[in-house]
Structure formats: C-alpha cells, structure tokens
Specification:
single chain; 8 helices
C-alpha cells in the first residue's frame, strides 16, 4: 500500500510539472478550448498506456540489458522536442504579411501522432520505468491497477493544464501575444529537451 501511495505521488508530480505533454495541451486548449484539447489529452494518455504495455511485454528487460538503447531513444525524443520547439519559435518570429493571421505551427499529427510521440518522449519513459521499478508487475492482472493510475492521474493533471490554456485564450487571440507565447513555449520545449536529455 505504501508503494502504491508513493507511486501515486510520483505520477502526480511527473504529470503536473511542466513538460512537453503539458505544453502541448496548454497550447491546444489556448487555441481551441478544453473540449478541443481532448484529442490531445486522449493521445497522450493512450500513448502512456501503450508504452506501459510494451514495457510489460518484455521491452523493460531489453532496456535493462542494453542501456545504450534507452539512451538512443532519449536522444531521439529530445531531438524531436527540439524540432517542435524550433517550429513554434520560427512561427512566432516569422514576419506576418499585412492582413494575414498568425500561422499555426503543426505540433503533432493528431491523436495517433501523440500516441507515437510518447515513445519518443523521454519524460514518458522515465515515468513508466520508475513506475515499474516502484510497483513491479508480474502478470497482466497487476497491469490493470497500474493502467488505471496511468489513466486517472495524467488525465486529471492534463485537464488542469487545459483549463489554464483555456483561461489564457482571452489574451492569446491577440496576434502579438500569440506570437510571443509561441516563442516562449518553443523555448520551453527546447529547454525540456535539454533537461530530459540530462536525465538519460
């Protein structure tokens, strides 16, 4: 029971602290509201569950016996975050032609893209590996409570980030504010990539 409570605390801290998933949800909700951010949240949560299932199917053993493989995934994921951040920064810096709206940088390919993104997101790997270390899973029946936690806690935390994004939307309708916000969020994504790379 103590391990389960510790794991809940760990998942809450990991899901609430700023990271690429939170920033994507914040930006989506700032653009299209909480309801419009639901596909983003769904993709992130399903991606986390998929990653957890893959680790249960034996990938965890492979990573334990081949540490460089985990490092390479961390590097690839961090480079992808840098690409996302750079696209936001470029979109915010690029001069607008008169009468045109601020361009919307493409941060993902929808729900399926975000499911796949969790396999490149170093923070997702850290969450899953830490959860499996804290609460060993020996059979599929052990997976269900862990899967429940991976749905309930991240969904609740991402909804909070979506509410924050929707609240910020009143200011983000101004093109100048939107562009500056994109630059800041892009820089934060690049910073997240750097910090997550250090963890690997």
């Amino acid at each position: 029971m103590d391990r389960l409570l510790a794991l809940c605390g760990l998942l809450c801290v990991a899901a609430l602290t700023p990271g690429p998933n939170n920033l994507l949800v914040l930006r989506a909700a700032g653009s299209v509201g909480v309801r419009g951010a639901m596909p983003t949240i769904l993709g992130i949560v399903l991606g986390g569950l998929s990653l957890l299932a893959v680790m249960m199917l034996g990938a965890g053993t492979v990573f334990a016996s081949h540490p460089p493989l985990r490092q390479w995934i961390g590097v690839c994921g961090s480079l992808y975050l840098v690409l996302l951040g750079a696209s936001l920064c470029v979109g915010g810096i690029r001069p607008l032609k008169a009468g045109t709206a601020s361009p919307e940088p493409s941060l993902s390919t929808g729900t399926l893209g975000l499911i796949g993104f969790q396999f490149l997101n170093p923070k997702s790997w850290v969450m899953v590996l830490t959860a499996l270390a804290a609460l060993p899973v020996n059979a599929w029946r052990d997976y269900l409570p862990l899967a429940g936690l991976f749905v309930l806690i991240p969904t609740s935390c991402l909804l909070l980030w979506a509410a924050l994004g929707a609240w910020l939307a009143r200011w983000l309708v101004r093109p100048t504010v939107r562009r500056r916000t994109d630059i800041v969020m892009g820089a934060l994504l690049v910073a997240c990539a750097g910090l997550l790379l250090i963890e690997f």
